[in-house]
Amino acid sequence: MKLSDIKNILPGLENVEFQLEDGRFVPEHFHVTEIGMVTKNFIDCGGTIRKEERVNFQLWNAEDYEHRLKPGKLLHIINLSEERLGIGDFEIEVEYQDQTIGKYDLEFTGKNFVLRNKLTACLAADACGIPLEKQKISLSGLKATQDSGCTPGSGCC
């Protein structure tokens, strides 16, 4: 989800609710403690230089149980970050501490924002020699060897 997407969604909501993929909700008293622009310059294992830019939201649970972040307030924080930091319309990455600090992609279900687990991946699979798909072999094409002791009628199967 891009920053423009959340800005379009927020005015139509009564509450801002974040949910983890496993169905648990981020407690209602969460705070958005940071909105920022994160730029990652790196080189992949194939030698290609890459650059990723993301808008980062950090969610935090406080002992402030009476706090509820309303859509208008979050929209105000977003607008302020765009104005003062020059944040562009990039994909949103959410930081949230569950067991440890996790980074999540963001989706919207029509009611809730869902924190989608991010996964690592090799960006240069072709340069690393990693097969794109597991090689498929036909079992009927395999021949039993004398040493294996497993031949038709031997009772091993």
Explain what you see.
- It is a single chain.
- The protein has 157 residues and is of the alpha/beta class.
- It has one domain (3-115).
- 17% of the residues lie in helices and 31% in strands.
- It has 3 helices and 6 strands, in the order H-E-E-E-H-E-E-E-H.
- The protein has helices spanning 3-9, 71-85, 125-128; strands at residues 18-20, 30-43, 49-61, 92-97, 101-108, 113-117.
- It has a 6-stranded mixed β-sheet, with helices on one face.
- It holds the Pfam family DUF6428.
- InterPro entries: DUF6428 (IPR045534).
- This is UDP-N-acetylmuramyl pentapeptide synthase.
Q: What key phrases describe this protein's structure?
A:
157 residues; alpha/beta; six-stranded mixed beta sheet; DUF6428; UDP-N-acetylmuramyl pentapeptide synthase
